[in-house]
């Protein structure tokens, strides 16, 4: 009997991102991102200039929230033998800018993310009498396993599962739009190629796109 293929979260995310890039599907883009009190949309940014986090609008995360954000990023995309964990590539800054942007969609995400951090800490205190960021990796993963798949999450975890899905997508978008992340999934863009064969059949199958 053939041993079933087992893949970790990081490998699955890489497959999804590779298939999406090849199919031209939209991905979360790192960029401008909050102050709830910001007025209007302002002028278009100078796209030639490199902006520092918080330069376009005030950021949101407190020091404790930044620690929780970094830990959760690395639970979702940990370091491996190819590339570092998500938090070391500025993904926390991207997330902070994203939820701080003065636009309706990002403001809705802001509420969900901040409430999600509160839920993680409350759940960590209930189970292990510590904040989420202070837990060990095994305990952190145990909590995330309960909310990482909305279809199987318990009813009382429905909102937390929605938060995790958003956070996972934003983390992946921030990580895999960095040069290191693009190299990780072997994405080649803006480079002339003699031919393009598309993503491997196994990647399409795993992403549910084999028949498209």
> Which percent range describes the beta-strand content?
under 5%
Spatial extent as radius of gyration: 18 Å
Overall residue-averaged pLDDT value: 83
- Shape, principal axes of CA atoms: globular
The count of DSSP E runs of length 2 or more, i.e. the number of strands, is 0
Output the number of helix runs.
8
Instruction: State the secondary-structure class.
Output: mainly alpha
Q: First CA to last CA: what distance?
A: 30 Å
Tell me the series of helices and strands, N- to C-terminal: HHHHHHHH
Tally the structural domains. Answer: 1
Biggest sheet overview: none
Low-confidence sequence ranges? 1-7, 21-35
The level of helicity is 40-55%
Defining traits:
48% helix, mainly alpha, globular, 212 residues, 8 helices
What's the SSE blueprint?
Layout (H helix, E strand, L loop, with lengths): L8 H15 L39 H14 L14 H9 L4 H25 L8 H9 L12 H18 L3 H6 L16 H6 L6
Helix pairs in contact: 2-3, 3-6, 4-6
